[in-house]
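call fold target=RNA polymerase subunit sigma-24
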Amino acid sequence: MTLAMTADAPRTATAAPAPARSSFAIDVPASLLERARAGEHAAFEQLFRWFERPVYTLALRLCGDRDDAADVLQDTMLKVFGNLRSFRGGSPFWGWLRQVAVNEALQKLRRRRLLDDELPMGEHEFEDLAPPPAAAADAATLTRALLRLPPSTRSVLWLYHAEGYTHEEIAGLLQRTASFSKSQLARGGRRLRALLETPEEADRG
């Protein structure tokens, strides 16, 4: 199942199947990073404009609250800009920035003790590989459906399908196990599909 977010996706995102291409996957010229490291205000503004939407979208999908997402965006950018001199490459800049954003969003959920709430695990769960219904292409509809899921389940779905994280990576981020991630992906995927296809019936169930 692939989470299509046409309304929120920046020009660099693609609709290719897994592994997902993150909306953060923006090639940043080394010269721009050098200018930002040197403290050039215009370079900071350029980086902010490029990554504002991906950071805010990720934070909103994980936190489920616009005010929290705005806080995560601000905290992420402040942390990235404050530590930019320590970034020496070796991995894409966007990957480092995305990791900061994910950590900030999950920390927001932990402070509110929201990651303890998830869909119950089953004994025999398998990854949900069925294609999503057409409604998944509607950003507003998908957002409403995601908000009906527990934060931890929503986080697993978004990190796996939209950001391309592995179950092992998600387990590390959530401080759980890979089996937990797989179980939440399977059950959450089925629940999300039900919400998208028959929202009224799914809400009553």
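return ok
Residues 4-18, 201-205 have pLDDT under 50 and may be disordered. Residues 20 and 190 are 19 Å apart (CA to CA).
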